[in-house]
Amino acid sequence: MTSTSVKFLHSELPGAPVLSGTAGSLIAVLDACLVNGWGLLTAASVNVASGIATATFVSTHSYEVDSVILVAGAGTPAINGEHRVTGTSSLTVSWPAPGVADGAVSGTVTVKLAPAGWAKAHAGTNKAAYRSLSPSATGAYIRIDHSSAKVARMRAYSVMTDIDTGSDPTPTDTQVPGGCYVPVSNVADASARRWMIVASDRCVHILVAHNATYPEDYGLEVAGDFPSLKAADAYRVLVVGEVTDLSNTGSPGLNNAVHAYASSVGAYVMRQYAQVGGPIPVYVYKPGFVMAGTSGQSNHPIGPNPINNGIDICPTLFLEQGVNGSRRGEVPGVYGIPHYLGSGFDNKTRINAAVGLPGHTLIAVRFGGYPSLTQSYRAAIDITGPWE
After folding, report:
1. Which of the residues 25, 28, 116, 367 could staple to 199 if both were Cys, CB 3.0 to 4.6 A apart?
2. Is 201 in contact with 132 (CB distance < 8 Å)?
3. Is residue 289 very low, low, confident or very high in pLDDT (cuts 50, 70, 90)?
4. pTM for this one?
5. How many angstroms separate the CA atoms of 97 and 80, rounded?
6. Residue 290 pLDDT > 60, yes or no?
7. Residue 26: helix, strand or coil by DSSP?
């Protein structure tokens, strides 16, 4: 069965909410991607042929290959639920329907882009706290405050009683006053900015091309649960963001700990592995880079690898800082690329030959603030999962 645990949503999909240098616009994006979905349509017909279901609509839809859709109302139970899209035309969408008999599907069938499986647990003016609905999650809250037009603030809590009150703030005000920064736009106006959200029901990746001068280069901020090396790790909650306001910077993503081959700035875990104390900084790194350098940098060997035509990838691991210094876990779904990719692999280009991840689809993501594709750094993000 194809995994639907990871959702990939972005600003170029029809009907996507607009992100801009307007207070609260990031909340609208996250509401749509994490909680509500969008693009609800009623199918004119649904038919199954050779294990593939196809819905036909009377108007254009919001779906693309690799989207996860949520289907409801079908008389055949196996048609309902989440499915990963394998084909589209302007008026149709198709997905696998193994074991379903050929023929027309009865019922009033609706289809929409599936949300990632979070609840909006608390809300305020231009603020929201999101919490995973998964019973396997830690139950941590991810609080976003987009009260300032050009930049939002992000931190995690183990418990929240209202939108402004909680326990275990990660990072603390001593570490990053107000929480990590999420650059949204370099200008405080309604000009749209490109965005991507890649999320499971436990972890969220927020990618924003915030600078109008470099509309193809994305920063990356991360919040949520991570795969931990510690059994029964109740505080496996990670926040990675900027530690200062970089909304005016001309190098989106370049200073971010997730994109670097090694960084000790801007990444925090809710508690150390012993489960005591408060939030601690972690050291993020990518093992396996042939050359020390940023992901996709030109000093790496040419890619794809001419020996096997594959793309080598390196996981994004992190160590607890301080006396322990041991590896705690990894940033789920984010990989470095120890290749120079030249003019290939622009944003959202699918990487289906990632070495070590058979059956997964990754996308290339540009960052760094360079005018041309040949100069841009590239990272890889797994858009199909599973991440754990």
Report:
1. 116
2. yes
3. low
4. 0.96
5. 10
6. no
7. helix
